[in-house]
TrEMBL record:
This is GatB/YqeY domain-containing protein. One of its GO terms (molecular function) is carbon-nitrogen ligase activity, with glutamine as amido-N-donor. Gene3D superfamilies: 1.10.10.410, Uncharacterised protein YqeY/AIM41 PF09424, N-terminal domain. Pfam families: YqeY. It comes from Acidilutibacter cellobiosedens.
């Protein structure tokens, strides 16, 4: 079953179960997918949909920071629920140790010596971990090993 079909099935289930948060989150994903398909006149593959979901997850993380600054715990809780739903459609997320291992290996591959080489490392790491980790985490780990 493709990711698009899975989203449709889960959408129907959430409607039947009256799970509003899940329904709204899936609607948001499906709307973004449809928008891109219409704009570019293509049918998106699963990896393209994963990119869209990853981007939405990143936006949710940034929104949580804003809500915490505004002392809106109700919005923080809602956004965390949405993030958990989004994570179900992404590949299993890498642990800190797994991510460090990939970064170290890539640093050796591209023969990075200093912080100036972080661009080369990031360019090489990101396709390997597509959808499995956040770019900010990768950048932080790269800086840790290249300083």
């Amino acid at each position: 079953m493709s990711l698009k079909e899975k989203l449709m099935e889960d959408f129907k289930d959430s409607m039947r179960n009256r799970d509003v948060v899940r329904k709204n989150t899936i609607t948001m994903i499906r709307a973004a997918v449809k928008q891109r398909e219409v704009d570019e006149r293509i049918q998106l593959k699963d990896e393209d949909i994963i990119d869209i979901i990853s981007k939405q997850l990143k936006e949710k993380k940034e929104a949580i920071e804003e809500f915490q600054r505004g002392k809106r715990q109700d919005l923080v809780d809602l956004t965390e629920k949405e993030m958990n739903i989004l994570l179900k459609y992404l590949p299993a997320q890498l642990t800190e140790e797994e991510l460090e291992k990939v970064v170290k290996q890539t640093i050796d591959e591209v023969e990075a010596k200093s912080i100036k080489d972080i661009g080369k490392v990031m360019k090489s790491v990101m396709p390997k971990i597509k959808g499995k980790a956040d770019g900010k985490e990768v950048n932080r780990i790269c800086k840790k090993y290249l300083e």
